[in-house]
């Protein structure tokens, strides 16, 4: 189906802009004064790069094979959005919020990007484009990691670049975040959803046994205790650890704040490119085809397009473990306590993985529109009982990592990160949330807080045991040639 972007009447806009351009009253003001946005010149009316559109009805119709659903998501992931697609947003200086997506200025009034608080890329693959950094040159791969220049600076108001405070470092009150890969995401999401279901059942159990502390253990991971108070009708969550009080496991983002990759993507498309998904508008009580970001383009990303993006992002090859000559490294990994957080394998109860829309975080069984078998390619997870083994090396839980790794947003999670999944770690330098560690050894030495003891145990190992541990980590590889099965590039970019 060919289905074009719906826009505000361009002729009217063109007339208005031409009138404005010839009006002396709106000549550009000085740099420090109020700024008139650079008008989009109608003769350069940009054509969209998303040349055809996917609705949710098409996704659920069964007309598209799973391969084609994935390929459509791959197209969304790799399309450089331009202004005809809805890249960017209008900026209202009178709106008190100048930092949230939907109302951000552009740098030096360039009219296109901001760079230091999003509006920083045209496509997902700009940042997720390196499959392996373990070779020179690096191996390109859609869905991979990014280096320091692709690390967004999220939400800063102040960056003390010249250390005017003279405190010995450049203060920064935003987040600097290095892009991780999205390989194997279906396995991670499936494990997370099963854990959520378990925890919701434990919460119910607490409700049925008022006053009795119920221990929140799922798949061997301990999230503390919850108690129900029947007289107040409230849960006491002061004993809940490493997870939000709603007991929803959120494996995605380095902070552990998104329950699915789709949930992450809803923020990502807006933050990076000003592409507003219809479902975000709907969740704000607006019509899905509203022009929420005021850039003159509506239907920037349809529900069906977010679905295929989700399907592509989830259904990719998974990282794998290469051969190792000795068990010493793995043994040292376990004996130093790394495996307490970096749990080598979490197993699902079912090999069926479901996609839902609208998704309900506390109820993964709601609104399922597609089910896939995780044992099938390209995911190819190994069967374990009625489920699959996901060798992710993580516990999907947040931990306090100490002051050294602490961020400075002033928020409650500044010291906390979800345990980094170590699968694929041989290929994904630089390491840690902001990419500060160029080597595995540096990444381990930066561990503090709850991981301080394991870090000290690593330092106390004999040099040969330490090297064996690092060699073991170097067997954890990203998939070879990921996502190369979609055929030749589509020759229709409207530059
Ligand atoms: C400017 C660079 C950049 C661009 C462009 C970008 N990402 Fe990311 N991506 C990141 C960073 C950084 C993170 C880690 C975010 C965090 O920890 O909060 C991330 C994380 C993710 C995650 C979560 C992965 C995980 O395991 O936690 C997903 C899914 C994702 N990105 C999808 C996308 C999609 C889809 C797009 C395109 C709409 C996109 N990204 C565009 C930098 C980028
Ligand atoms: C208390 C839980 C915990 C323990 C114990 C722990 N880690 Fe970590 N590890 C984390 C968290 C959380 C992160 C993410 C920190 C960040 O991004 O700043 C991490 C990050 C890493 C990274 C970087 C991953 C990446 O993709 O950037 C490596 C490598 C690593 N850990 C190895 C180890 C090793 C080896 C040990 C044992 C000596 C260990 N960890 C012990 C929680 C832990």
Topology:
Elements: H1 10-21, H2 56-60, H3 66-78, E1 130-132, E2 139-140, E3 153-154, E4 175-176, H4 185-208, E5 214-218, E6 221-229, E7 234-236, H5 261-273, H6 278-283, H7 303-314, E8 320-321, H8 328-335, H9 338-341, E9 346-347, E10 352-356, E11 368-373, E12 382-384, E13 387-390, E14 398-400, E15 416-418, H10 440-445, H11 452-460, H12 463-473, E16 476-477
Antiparallel strand pairs: 1-2, 3-4, 5-6, 6-7, 8-16, 9-13, 10-11, 12-13, 14-15
Helix pairs in contact: 3-7, 5-7, 8-12
The structure holds heme C (2 copies).
| Ligand identities | heme C
- Helix-residue proportion: 10-25%
Count of DSSP E strands? 16
Beta-strand proportion: 5-15%
List segments where confidence is low: pLDDT < 50 over at least 5 consecutive residues.
1-33
Structure annotation, total helices: 12
Mean pLDDT: 92
Question: What structural class results from the helix and strand content?
Answer: alpha+beta
CA distance, first residue to last residue: 23 Å
Principal-axes shape call: globular
Listing every helix as H and every strand as E from the N terminus to the C terminus, the arrangement reads: HHHEEEEHEEEHHHEHHEEEEEEEHHHE
Count of folded domains: 3
Largest sheet: 3 strands, antiparallel
Kindly provide the radius of gyration, computed on alpha-carbon positions and rounded to a whole number of angstroms.
Answer: 24 Å
Sheet with the most strands: spatial strand order: 5-6-7
């Amino acid at each position: 189906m060919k289905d074009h972007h719906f826009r505000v009447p361009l002729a009217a806009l063109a007339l208005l802009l031409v009138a404005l351009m010839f009006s002396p009253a709106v000549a550009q003001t000085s740099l420090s004064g109020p700024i008139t946005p650079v008008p989009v010149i109608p003769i350069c009316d940009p054509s969209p790069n998303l040349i055809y559109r996917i609705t949710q009805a098409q996704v659920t119709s069964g007309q598209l094979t799973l391969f084609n659903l994935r390929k459509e998501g791959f197209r969304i992931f790799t399309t450089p959005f331009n202004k005809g697609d809805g890249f960017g947003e209008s900026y209202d200086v009178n709106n008190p919020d100048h930092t949230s997506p939907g109302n951000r200025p552009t740098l030096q009034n360039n009219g296109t990007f901001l760079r230091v608080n999003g509006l920083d890329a045209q496509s997902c693959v700009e940042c997720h484009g390196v499959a392996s950094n373990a070779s020179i040159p690096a191996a390109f791969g859609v869905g991979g990691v990014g280096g320091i220049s692709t690390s967004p600076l999220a939400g800063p108001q102040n960056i003390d670049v010249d250390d005017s405070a003279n405190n010995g470092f450049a203060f920064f009150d935003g987040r600097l975040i290095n892009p991780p890969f999205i390989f194997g995401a279906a396995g991670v999401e499936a494990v997370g959803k099963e854990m959520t279901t378990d925890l919701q059942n434990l919460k119910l159990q607490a409700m049925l046994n008022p006053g009795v502390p119920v221990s929140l253990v799922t798949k061997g991971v301990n999230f503390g205790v919850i108690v129900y108070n029947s007289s107040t009708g409230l849960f006491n969550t002061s004993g809940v650890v490493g997870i939000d009080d709603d007991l929803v496991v959120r494996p995605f983002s380095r902070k552990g704040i998104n329950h699915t990759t789709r949930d992450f993507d809803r923020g990502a498309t807006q933050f990076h490119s000003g592409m507003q998904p219809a479902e975000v508008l709907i969740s704000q009580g607006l019509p899905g085809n509203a022009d929420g970001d005021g850039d003159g383009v509506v239907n920037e990303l349809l529900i069906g397009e977010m679905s295929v993006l989700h399907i592509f992002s989830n259904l990719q090859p998974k990282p794998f473990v290469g051969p190792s000559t000795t068990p010493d490294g793995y043994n040292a990994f376990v004996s130093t306590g790394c495996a307490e957080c970096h749990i080598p394998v979490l197993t699902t109860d079912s090999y069926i993985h479901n996609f839902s829309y609208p998704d309900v975080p506390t109820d993964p069984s709601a609104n399922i529109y597609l089910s896939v078998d995780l044992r099938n390619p390209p995911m190819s997870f190994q069967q374990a009982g009625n489920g699959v083994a996901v060798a992710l090396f993580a516990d999907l839980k947040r931990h306090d990592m100490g002051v050294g790794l602490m961020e400075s947003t002033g928020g409650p999670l500044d010291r906390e990160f979800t345990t980094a999944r170590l699968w694929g770690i041989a290929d994904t330098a630089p390491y840690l949330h902001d990419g500060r560690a160029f080597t595995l050894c540096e990444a381990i030495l930066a561990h503090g807080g709850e991981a301080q003891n394991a870090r000290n145990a690593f330092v106390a190992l004999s040099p040969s045991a330490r090297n064996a541990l690092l060699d073991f980590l170097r067997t954890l590889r990203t998939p070879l040639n990921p996502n190369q099965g979609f055929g030749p590039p589509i020759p229709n970019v409207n530059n």
